[in-house]
Amino acid sequence: MAGSELGLLFQQRFLAARRLRGMPWAELEQQLTAAPQRSQSSLLSDILHQTVLHPLCVRFPPPASYRRRFLTELIKKHESTAADPLDELYDALAPILNEEESTRCYKSYLLPSFPGCSTAVSCSTVPVLTSLSPTCDLQPSGEAVTLSESVAIISQGTTGLITWDAALHLAEWAMENPKVFTNRTVLELGSGVGFTGLVICKTCNPKTYVFSDCHHAVLKQLTENIRLNGFTLEPETTNPAQGQEAEGQECQQPKLLVAELDWRSVTEQQLLALHADVVIAADVVYDPEVTLALIGVLRKFSTSRADRKPEIYVALTVRNADTYHVFQAELDKAGIRWQIIPAHSSNIFLHDTQPNVTVLQLLV
Predict the structure, then answer these.
(1) Axis-axis angle for helices 3-15, 37-50 (nearest 10)
(2) Are 248 and 232 in contact (CB under 8 A)?
(3) What does the alpha-carbon distance between residue 336 and residue 296 come to, in Å, rounded to a whole number?
(4) What are the pLDDT digits (tens) for 15-61?
(5) Is the pTM of this model over 0.70?
(6) Nearest to 284 by CA among 152, 160, 107
(7) How far apart are CA 203 and CA 181, in angstroms?
(8) How far is CA 142 from the centre of its chain?
(9) Mean per-residue pLDDT, 212-218
(10) Looking at residue 345, what is its pLDDT?
(11) Per-residue pLDDT reduced to its tens digit, 245-270
């Protein structure tokens, strides 16, 4: 593996703040051992500029503690060599040592370009990228999805302020199956901070995309992240009963809407007014009460005309087999047929883990 390829591997994982133990440290040690002394410093400098000093990191930094641990490990690798001192490593660490921890951080995910998929946001406010991990055989699109998230798993009484692995998994599946979304109206249930929807809007060219959630803090953060990625929402948040859609900027194809949607009280008329061709959800099956509310929402789509029933896809991480089986049993009880979608082959976002995620297609 060439040094530049190794730098891109570090970059893709670092900008998304993936687990440090999932970084290619062993490959770095191998290259440092094999490289001439002069090349050792050059390799480490390249990784530094691909990560901590990258424009995306400078503008949208991962947590301070994460950057400190990363630089400390990089310095250890440098000190294990006979290379000359590399002052820029210590210069990069110095200001982070005194940086206060924040309750929020940024994560940036680099997007490839799939055949048949078009990048919808050529005028994104996110800095353009020209690199992608060589582990992916697809060409880079020059796009990234950048999210502002909570550093805590539970914040403000909700788990919806961070991105979960099922959302990454569903986004990977969507990018391999863009025709499901192209020129169609997509409703996402429980959008959280917006990762899956933003990936689909940037790569799969939907006609309309409706983000939805019920927690006010989540809706506020979701709206911020949509703007952060170059989209415009006006009004910021609307009730689905109003049937309003927000036009994006001129260079953006999808129409975007953020809907405050409470599964316990939403009506059939409100759901049908959204005219969804496709309904998706990720990591929303984790609690019996939530599961029953979700089943109630899904049943409401059964009143659609036969030629207007939406395609429904739910991605769930199987953390507890009992919870998973309860969801399947409740689907059967509600008369909702289901089938498991074959696993996709890409590994664009989930570099350091292989979660037990299943995607179900539901037939109402």
Answers:
(1) 30
(2) yes
(3) 11
(4) 999 999 999 999 999 999 999 888 999 999 999 999 999 999 999 99
(5) yes
(6) 160
(7) 10
(8) 16
(9) 91
(10) 77
(11) 433 344 456 899 999 999 999 999 99
Question: Sign (positive/negative) of CA torsion 314, 316, 322, 323?
Answer: negative
Looking at residue 13, its amino acid is R
Write out the chain in H/E/C secondary structure: CCHHHHHHHHHHHHHCCCCHHHCCHHHHHHHHHHCCHHHHHHHHHHHHHHCCCCHHHHHCCCCHHHHHHHHHHHHHHHHCCCCCCCHHHHHHHHHHHCCCCCCEEEEEEEEEECCCCCCCCCCCCCCCCCCCCCCCCCEEEEEEEEEEEECCCCECCECCCCCCHHHHHHHHHHHHCHHHCCCCEEEEECCCCCHHHHHHHHHCCCCEEEEEECCHHHHHHHHHHHHHCCCCCCCCCECHHHCCCECCCCCCCCEEEEEECCCCCCCHHHHHCCCCCEEEEECCCCCHHHHHHHHHHHHHHHHCCHHHCCEEEEEEECCCHHHHHHHHHHHHHCCCEEEECCCCCCCCCCCCCCCCEEEEEEEC
Q: What is the structure's pLDDT at 192?
A: 93
The token pair at 135 is 């582990």
What pLDDT is recorded for position 318? Answer: 83
Phi-psi region of 312 (alpha: psi -120 to 50; beta: other; left: phi over 0): beta
CB 349 within 8 A of CB 138: no
